[in-house]
């Protein structure tokens, strides 16, 4: 543990950061997640990310490094919780079905993947926009029905749907470009 | 509000990568999609969409993204058992994540200093209360307001604060009657700028600073320039420079300590909590709430991280509930009770 007032004489290497902060970060994550294995995984991942993509400004002090690691870890916790909650949502939905209903493992995997993807894509959208998009697309409700449900005009519903769809399209476009780039000579 | 996600121009560095449709064309495609699935589209609309599609290769390219999103992400969910239940659950996950993320806004920008000096407000005696209502500038409960003074200086009054302004030819004087004020002085006015409290007089030396009245003492934090303190009884003087804060009484000035930049955040309507105890956060929120907030002792020491909207106490509490595993209930319309969610909420790791 470094004293709060300490500063780094030169930009610290990942090794130094690891020695100074790894066990602190793991303990912090463990308190937050209540689970030692998850905490160890995320702490490991946080340092991997530091190696792959170092903080742009570098760190001047241990305090700054911890603030950075902590906000990174906060984001990772949120992602982990989202994945867990999505998995739970799918299990709950399955459990609510009649007993003889049993989709194949493959089918289940496809639905679960789609759920994770939609939850990620909706990030950053307002609650109403996300709701309007889900009701219109997944539930197949008309804009008028969705509007009545949410207390907005059907024009507004169309705007929400377009906004959410644009976001999905952009993500799709990025993925397509990345995939093409990673296999340059495949064709 | 149409969110306009930042356009990312994809620079093709490979001949196989077709030039991506422009942001405008992507937007048009998304709007066509929204219209076509809305149930409001008639045959004319569909014909216009067909015409739009055949008009350009870029249009068709943009539409291909609509199709791949539909097939890859939306179709599996539409054909899943009970899409309505599934959609509602995804919506819940989204709402929870949203409030978790909101609680993080601004954290990355902070240096990890803990928020000092969020001590409680003292009860205001009646004569002072009257003075507050007749003050030149005042704010009520839960109110944060910005004012521009005649000389061009700007002041922000925190909740339940009052200040008088005197601008005779030779001086610019503010008298802080209660609460807290953030001052950003105007340049180019040669008259001295002073703020008075019963504990003393602060003279601004070209600057931005916060003054808060507490029981028997004055709190001062300087963010820019410097401020000179002269105490009311002993007449002792000290200069507090940018990045420092201190407390003073009529006959004593406490040694300056490092000022917390987050301390300024209230002028924007946010409380930034970095490793504060829940009790500190609730005490602060309480000042913006006309009713009573009751906090269970069991959770008072829980640490809190996040940015909370001071203008929306209910919203701030909902965010707290979500990030700190708390149960918020309202047994009476003006009474908010904060308690632990469950016994496992703060479970120790194995």
Description:
The complex is a heterodimer of chains A (187) and B (350). Chain A has helices spanning 14-33, 36-52, 62-95, 105-122, 127-137, 143-150, 154-182. With 187 residues, chain A is an all-alpha fold. Chain A folds into 2 domains: 1-102, no CATH class; 124-187, Orthogonal Bundle (Arc Repressor Mutant, subunit A), CATH 1.10.10. Chain B has helices at 23-37, 43-55, 57-78, 83-102, 126-133, 278-286, 313-323, and strands at residues 137-138, 145-148, 154-157, 162-166, 172-178, 180-184, 193-197, 200-214, 217-231, 237-241, 244-249, 252-253, 257-258, 270-277, 292-295, 303-309, 326-332, 335-340. In chain B, strands 1, 2, 3, 4, 5, 6, 7, 8, 9, 10, 11, 12 and 13 form a 13-stranded mixed sheet that branches. In chain B, strands 15-18-17 form a 3-stranded mixed sheet. Chain B is elongated.
Instruction: Kindly report the oligomeric state of this protein.
Output: heterodimer
The low-pLDDT segments of chain A are none
Question: How is the CATH topology of the largest domain in chain B named?
Answer: Jelly Rolls
Structural class of chain A: mainly alpha
Average of the residue pLDDT scores of chain B: 75
Distance between the termini of chain B: 47 Å
* Strand percentage of chain B: 25-35%
């Amino acid at each position: 543990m470094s004293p709060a007032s300490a500063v780094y004489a030169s930009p610290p290497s990942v090794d130094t950061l690891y020695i100074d902060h790894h066990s602190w970060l793991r303990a912090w994550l463990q308190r937050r997640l209540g689970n030692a294995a998850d905490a160890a995984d995320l702490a490991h991942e946080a340092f991997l990310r530091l190696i792959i993509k170092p903080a742009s400004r570098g760190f001047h002090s241990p305090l700054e490094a911890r603030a950075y690691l902590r906000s990174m870890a906060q984001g990772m916790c949120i992602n982990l919780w989202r994945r867990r909650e999505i998995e739970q949502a799918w299990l709950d939905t399955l459990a609510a079905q009649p007993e003889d209903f049993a989709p194949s493992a493959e089918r289940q995997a496809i639905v679960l993947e789609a759920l994770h993807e939609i939850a990620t894509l909706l990030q950053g959208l307002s609650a109403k926009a996300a709701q309007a998009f889900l009701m219109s697309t997944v539930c197949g409700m008309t804009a008028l029905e969705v509007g009545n449900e949410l207390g907005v005009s059907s024009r507004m519903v169309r705007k929400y749907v377009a906004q959410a769809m644009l976001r999905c399209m952009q993500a799709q476009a990025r993925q397509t470009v990345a995939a093409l780039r990673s296999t340059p000579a495949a064709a | 509000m149409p969110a306009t996600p930042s356009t990312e121009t994809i620079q093709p560095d490979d001949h196989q990568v077709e030039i991506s449709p422009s942001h405008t064309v992507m937007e048009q495609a998304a709007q066509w999609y929204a219209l076509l699935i809305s149930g409001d589209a008639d045959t004319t609309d569909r014909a216009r969409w067909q015409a739009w599609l055949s008009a350009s290769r870029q249009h068709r390219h943009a539409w291909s993204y609509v199709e791949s999103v539909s097939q890859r992400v939306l179709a599996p969910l539409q054909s899943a058992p009970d899409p309505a239940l599934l959609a509602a659950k995804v919506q819940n996950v989204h709402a929870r994540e949203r409030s978790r993320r909101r609680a993080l806004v601004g954290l990355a920008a902070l240096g990890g200093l803990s928020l000092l000096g969020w001590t409680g407000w003292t009860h205001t005696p009646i004569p002072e209360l009257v003075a507050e209502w007749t003050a030149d500038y005042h704010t009520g409960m839960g109110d944060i307001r910005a004012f521009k003074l005649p000389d061009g200086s700007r002041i922000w009054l925190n909740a339940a604060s009052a200040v008088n302004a005197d601008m005779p030819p030779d001086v610019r004087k503010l008298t802080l009657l209660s609460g807290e004020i953030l001052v950003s002085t105007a340049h180019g006015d040669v008259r001295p700028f002073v703020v008075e409290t019963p504990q003393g007089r602060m003279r601004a030396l070209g600057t931005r600073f916060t003054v808060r009245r507490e029981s028997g003492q004055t709190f001062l934090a300087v963010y820019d320039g410097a401020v000179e303190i002269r105490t009311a009884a002993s007449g002792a003087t000290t200069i507090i420079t940018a990045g420092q804060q201190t407390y003073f009484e009529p006959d004593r000035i406490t040694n300056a300590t490092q000022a917390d930049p987050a301390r300024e955040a209230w002028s924007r309507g946010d409380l930034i909590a970095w490793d504060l105890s829940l009790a500190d956060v609730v005490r602060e929120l309480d000042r913006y709430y006309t009713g009573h907030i009751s906090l269970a002792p069991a959770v008072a020491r829980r640490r809190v991280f996040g940015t909370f909207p001071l203008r929306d106490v209910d919203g701030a509490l909902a965010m707290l509930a979500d990030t700190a595993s708390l149960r918020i209930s309202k047994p009476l319309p003006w009474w908010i009770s904060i308690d632990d969610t469950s016994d496992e909420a703060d479970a120790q790791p194995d």
